[in-house]
Amino acid sequence: MTAKADALQHFTVHHDGVVIPVSHGGRGRPLVLCPGLTSSRAELHELGGFLRRDHHVISFDLRGHGLSSAADRYAFEAFAGDFAAVMAAVERLDLPAPPVLAGHSYGADLIVHHAAEFPGVAAELVLIDGANPIPEPFITEADLPEFRELWENLATWQETLKGTPRQVLLTPRQILDLNLELDVIRTEQTLDRFRAIDCPITMIMSAAMAGHGTEGRTPQRNRNWRAGIERLVRELPQISVTWLEATHALVVTHAREIAGRLATC
C-alpha cells in the first residue's frame, strides 16, 4: 500500500479478536504515532496534522479506544500485542525506511518495550511524557480513593462520547488497574528496556505532569516524574530530553511545538 501525499488512507488490523483501524498519509520520513491510555487518534488530530507536513504518519486506536473494538482483556501485554500487529502491517506498506516511533504517555511505554524486543524495527524513538522509569509508584495506597474518583468522573464524561472517534470503552476499574500495572512496569522494568534499545531516543516531557497545583500530592508527583528522567539520563546520557512548561495534556496544548521538535527527526 502507498499513501497519497495529501490524503489519508485507511485499513484495519485484526488481532486477538480486536479490530484496529489504522490511518496513514503525509509526506516525508515515516512515523508511527501511538496514542496513550484514555486517548485516541482523534485527540491527536492536530498533532498529526502538523506532523504530516514533514512525515508520512501512520496512526491507530488502542483496543477499546476511539474506533477500535472492545476487548475481553485489557493489560499491557495485550496492548503490546496489538502494537506488534500494527507494526507488522506497517512493514507491508511501501515505506522508504524504518519508521520513527512516537508515542504519548502509555503509548510511549508501548514503543519502548517494542523497540527493546525487536532491534532494528525503528529509526528513532520519540517519547512524549511517558516511558518514565520513575523511582516510586505514581499511585500509592493512599492515592487510590482520589484516582478512583478521577476515573469515575472520566467515565461519566465519556458517556457523552459513546459512538464517536473519541470514545473509551474501558470501565473506571479497568483504567485504574492498567495504571497500577504501569507503575510496576515503570519502576521495575522500564530502565532495563531502555538499555536494550539500539536507536536514538528523544524525550519530550512535561514539567507539571500532575498539574500546576502546590497542594496535596501534586508537587511530590511532579518531583517523582522529574526524578525518573534524571535517573534515566544518569544511566544513559545519550538520551535527549526536552522539558516543556506543560501538563500531561501537552499533546493537545503544545501540539505545534512538539511537531516542530519532531520535524528534525
Tally of DSSP helical segments: 9
Mean pLDDT: 94
The main β sheet shows up as:
8 strands, mixed
* General shape: globular
Low-confidence stretches: 1-5
Give structural attributes:
8 strands, disordered N terminus, 265 residues, 18% strand, 8-stranded mixed beta sheet, Rossmann fold
Explain what this protein looks like in three dimensions.
The structure is a single chain. With 265 residues, this protein is of the alpha/beta class. It has a single domain, classed as 3-Layer(aba) Sandwich (Rossmann fold), CATH 3.40.50. Helices cover 39% and strands 18% of the residues. It is built from 9 helices and 8 strands. It has helices spanning 45-51, 76-91, 106-117, 144-158, 172-188, 190-195, 218-235, 250-253, 255-262; strands at 9-15, 18-26, 29-34, 55-60, 100-104, 124-128, 201-206, 240-244. An 8-stranded mixed sheet has the order 1-2-4-3-5-6-7-8, covered by helices on one side. Helix 2 crosses helix 3 (106-117) and helix 4 (144-158) crosses helix 5 (172-188). The longest helix is centred in the last third of the chain and has 18 residues, at 218-235. It is globular. The model is unreliable at 1-5 (pLDDT under 50).
